[in-house]
Design goal:
alpha/beta, Elongation Factor Tu (Ef-tu), domain 3, Rossmann fold, six-stranded antiparallel beta sheet, five-stranded parallel beta sheet, 8 helices, 11 strands, binds adenosine-2'-5'-diphosphate, flavoprotein, FAD, ferredoxin-NADP+ reductase activity
């Protein structure tokens, strides 16, 4: 397709960084990832999101994007959906290395380790691009300092949509920073709903029926040991929240840590 328009003299507002795209990888006609340079002054906690846009209009459209890279990484990575006719993603999906992406200066979000009370096992429950904040957290040593075990779940429509996180978890074993920490402690449980796969069904249904716990060889979720984070579409958040509350977990926030947290700023 056509590259997104990139006016040379676009005035960058004060509260925005203008960064350069360093890599783009497309997984399916609906999903892709991209990386941008990281401003030296930009700090965030793994799991947070930031507003991003393109310099293609006098008033650029900004959308919330979870940062998929860990807080120690020298670049910033995002995992994005491509919405046909979407005000941002219609253009964003055409970016190439060398293009400019705008990023607002202030990161925020609830999917941070500090918003959970201590526990033994951390569940990260996602659908589609909702896996992005967890791609950040599974590469952060602090996650393994705080939890003995991490169970990352992603449900997607199709098998190819699982490639991003599947390849990342595979590569993590060789990672110099967390490679040894993830050994035997990070599990990835992927499922599909619309294409045949070895594990099928929505995570909500699989947890309610108990099938998930049987397949994974894990005890049912219990408030004594288990903590959870949820990221996905609004319907998924609501349904998953109800499932966790059914197991006795309680929703927390940055200023009131509890046994699970939800990211509501996320847009699919
Ligand atoms: P399904 O195929 O049954 O709709 P989407 O691409 O539409 O955001 O969906 C991503 C994945 O999330 C799909 O596998 C979809 O399953 C699943 N999903 C959609 N809504 C919910 C929900 N309310 N609870 C759990 N999973 C959901």
């Amino acid at each position: 397709g056509q590259p997104a328009p990139q006016p040379a003299n676009w005035p960058v507002p004060d509260n925005v960084f203008a960064e350069t795209v360093t890599a783009v990888e497309h997984y399916t006609d609906r999903l892709f990832r991209f990386r941008i340079t990281r401003p030296a002054s930009f700090r965030f906690r793994s799991g947070e999101f930031v507003m991003i846009g393109l310099p293609n209009a006098a008033k650029p459209v900004f959308r919330a994007y979870s940062i998929a890279s860990p807080s120690w990484d020298e670049e910033i990575e995002f995992f994005s959906i491509k919405v046909p006719g979407g005000p941002l993603t219609e253009h964003l999906q055409k970016i190439r290395p060398g293009d400019t992406v705008l990023m607002r200066r202030k990161p925020t979000g609830t999917l941070v380790l500090d918003a959970l009370v201590p526990g033994k096992r951390l569940y990260m429950l996602s659908t589609g691009t909702g896996v992005a904040p967890f791609a950040s957290l599974i590469r952060d040593p602090e996650t393994y300092e705080k939890f003995e075990e991490v169970v990352l779940v992603q449900t997607c429509r199709e098998v190819a949509e699982l490639a991003y996180i599947t390849r990342m978890v595979e590569a993590l074993k060789e990672d110099p920073l967390v490679g040894e920490m993830v050994e035997g402690r990070l599990r990835l449980h992927t499922t599909t709903t619309r294409e045949p796969f070895e594990r099928m069904g929505r995570i909500t249904d699989l947890m309610t029926s108990g099938r998930f716990f049987e397949d994974a060889g894990l005890p049912p979720i219990a408030p004594e040991d288990d903590r959870a984070m949820i990221c996905g579409s609004m319907a998924m958040l609501n349904d998953t929240k109800a499932v966790l509350e059914g197991f006795g977990l309680i929703e927390g926030a940055n200023n009131a840590p509890a046994t699970f947290v939800v990211e509501r700023a996320f847009v699919g």
